[in-house]
Design brief:
Layout lengths: L1 E9 L2 E6 L2 E9 L2 H10 L4 E6 H6 L5 H10 L3 E5 L5 H9 L4 E4 L1 H5 L1 H9 L7 E8 L2 E4 L4 E2 L5 H7 L7 E6 L11 H10 L4 E4 L5 H7 L6 E4 L1 H4 L5 H15 L1
Parallel strand pairs: 1-4, 1-12, 4-5, 5-6, 6-7, 7-10, 10-11, 11-12
Antiparallel strand pairs: 1-2, 2-3, 7-8, 8-9
Helix pairs in contact: 1-3
């Protein structure tokens, strides 16, 4: 299981939204590159970046910040927020981003998304972002409820598509440090052959111990790291130890 420390960007700064609410923002670091380098020094291999401005507006306004991180670290970076067409995805991949995350456009236009992920240019480099509140998928920066299938149903539907992964976020847990939704995450991970990355709610090393036995490709951790609930070195050690127990 890979560990993805998170950087959420708004106006070029590292922030965190509580339960996806843009009016409940916590500011952490005005230098995202310095934060990324710190994660790198502590042993991170991957970095999860969300362009919150892009998610809300549909335009990637933090791409230059992301490019600085990619060019000045060895981190493998996956980026979501505002990726709603081929051009925006290609632009991120061109600057060195390893994976692009698509949520809103995928849910609003699934036929387009199916064609998109089967394009040789993007196959294996696209992550489907499934963000749910009370079991219902949300779009456009978590401000609108999507019509159509549930997260579980959609995960099953795309199971054979050439996706890099699925990021599953339980919005009610996100940024709250109260623990992830273990049951929903477990159900989703068992529902499809695409690797699932859990997001939202991790607030302690105990939460990582609970997630470790699940068939997950990774886990995203944000606020807990910024507020020193534990550090990245400890988190990586726990995942490695739990992996050894499982094997």
């Amino acid at each position: 299981m890979d560990l993805f420390p998170a950087i959420d960007l708004r106006d070029g700064q590292c922030v965190r939204l509580l339960q996806g609410d843009y009016d409940r923002q916590i500011d952490y670091n005005d230098d995202p590159l310095a934060q990324a380098k710190l994660f790198e020094q502590q042993g991170a291999k991957w970095l999860h970046v969300v362009d919150l401005d892009g998610a809300r507006q549909g335009l990637q306004s933090n791409r230059s910040v992301i490019e600085r991180i990619v060019k000045n670290t060895s981190l493998r970076v996956q980026v979501g927020g505002g990726v709603r067409d081929e051009a925006s995805a290609a632009a991120l991949l061109t600057i060195g981003v390893k994976r692009v995350i698509v949520g809103t456009r995928a849910l609003e236009d699934l036929p387009w998304f199916e064609k998109f992920v089967h394009n040789d240019q993007f196959a294996g480099r696209v992550v489907l972002g499934l963000d749910a509140r009370n079991g219902r998928l949300q779009t456009r920066g978590w401000r609108q409820e999507a019509t159509g299938p549930t997260a579980l149903q959609l995960a099953q539907q795309v199971s054979d598509w050439p996706l890099a992964a699925i990021v599953y976020t339980d919005i009610s847990c996100d940024g709250m440090l109260t623990g992830p939704n273990i049951q929903a995450t477990n159900d989703l991970a068992h529902a499809c052959r695409v690797g699932v990355i859990a997001s939202g709610g991790v607030g302690s090393l105990k939460d990582l111990v609970q997630l470790a036995p699940l068939p997950l490709a990774g886990v995203i951790v944000g606020r807990a790291l910024y507020e020193n609930q534990f550090n990245l070195v400890e988190a990586l050690h726990v995942l490695k130890a739990e992996s050894s127990h499982e094997s």
